[in-house]
Amino acid sequence: MDRRGETEAFAELVYALIREIPKGRVTSYGAIARALGRPSSSRLVGRILGRGSHASPPVPAHRVVNSAGVLSGREAFSGAQTMQTLLEEEGIVVRNNKIANFNRVFWDPLHEL
């Protein structure tokens, strides 16, 4: 398999895992990368999510933040507040583009699948 094929295969694994994140919970790019056996690929996970709007079935990318709970991917959404609005609709508290209760709502795919 060529590099592009490997990246596309990894993207499908990323999408599948993100679809498992329960409503009202969040995870990080790094946690996804570690769960998929590629701990140094958190930036790749972020790039994949940046184009995730084309995934079918849809991917709840708003549930993925950086390791500090910051909504670092908010620019990938249609509006500046879209990511925050989606999270708040699920009961997640966001203050200053950061999840207020990050440790409580964090979903670790290695421990919770």
Word description of this protein:
It contains six helices and four strands, in the order αβααβαββαα. With 113 residues, it is mainly alpha-helical. It has one domain (3-112): Arc Repressor Mutant, subunit A, CATH 1.10.10.10. Strands 1-2 form a two-stranded parallel ribbon. β3 (94-95) and β4 form a beta hairpin. α2 packs across α3 (42-50). The longest helix is centred in the first third of the chain and has 16 residues, at 3-18. The radius of gyration is 13 Å and the shape is globular.
Comma- or semicolon-separated keywords:
4 strands, mainly alpha, two-stranded antiparallel ribbon, Arc Repressor Mutant, subunit A, globular, 113 residues, two-stranded parallel ribbon
Write the layout of secondary structure elements.
Elements: H1 3-18, E1 27-28, H2 29-35, H3 42-50, E2 64-65, H4 82-89, E3 94-95, E4 98-99, H5 102-105, H6 109-112
Helix pairs in contact: 2-3
